[in-house]
Amino acid sequence: MRKPVELSYRRRINLVIAHVGQHLDNPLDGGELASVASMSRFHFHRVFAAMTGLTPAEYVFLARMSRAVERLRKGRDPITRIALEVGFEGGPALAKALRRHFGMTASEIRGSAVDPRLGLVGERTYPRRRKELPMLTPEITTLPEQQVLCATERGRVNNDMGVAARRAFARLMAGAQAMEVMPRVQRAIAMAPDCPRGPDDPDQRFIAGYVIEGEMPALADGLHCETLPAGRWAVFRHVGPYTTLWQAWTSVYRDWIPHSGCTLRDAMPCEHYVNDPREVAPEQLITDLYIPIE
User: Fold this and answer.
1) Domains in the chain, ordered, with CATH?
2) pLDDT digits over 183-237, tens only?
3) pTM score, two decimals?
4) Which of 34, 94, 183, 255 could form a disulfide with 83 if both were Cys (CB 3.0 to 4.6 A apart)?
């Protein structure tokens, strides 16, 4: 039997799914959907993706495509009207999306004997946690407010985020050296505060950061300062290459948070890189995931 806390998270995701279905003609950005779920914008997209297997943006896109195909196959309304009803800017934008996703024009979809949605997951069931995996056990710690010297780069989540990360840390190190604060660097972290608009979103931010002890001096060009608020954190240790970190994040948000009874704080989660990838093999890399909790 599922625990009440887990059911609460699932009910929240179901509220979002229902809201999407009823408001496809609206922008449906991540902030709006986080509000529907009564979750912090810093956590909503991770919870949604972990529990459905899709980012919010991917789910909205698939819902729009499914509704568009349904409207095309059941009636003769012009594609422009259908496009506006399902949240596209106009007929050409919907036609382009149909060709890219299904390889079919609107006319071909109307006349096809086979519904192209047979290959489209319009509603994804919640992934099940593999029973052979042990339940995650974090270390709970309380930290004071921390000042973070940051460099931000942007990249596509599925393609060049690793490149963006390397660029960000290279620029951060150069700036920190110019500011003469390297001896006061306590740890290297990274934050990804945005809700992705999809796997091809080129504007997904990667923020590389150094937690600095003491006062922050005048900033070097291209760097900025973020503040991690004081509070409690659940810390999960991941051992292995950075390319498998997504599995740890998914497990935390899908398996631990709904069962933990903890309430997420409205603060950015982050990764702490414990050792240096230039000094150890990928399978020996240690990364701590910091989840802000009440």
Assistant:
1) 4-119 (1.10.10.60), 139-293 (3.20.80.10)
2) 999 999 999 877 666 556 667 889 999 999 999 999 999 999 999 999 999 999 9
3) 0.84
4) 94
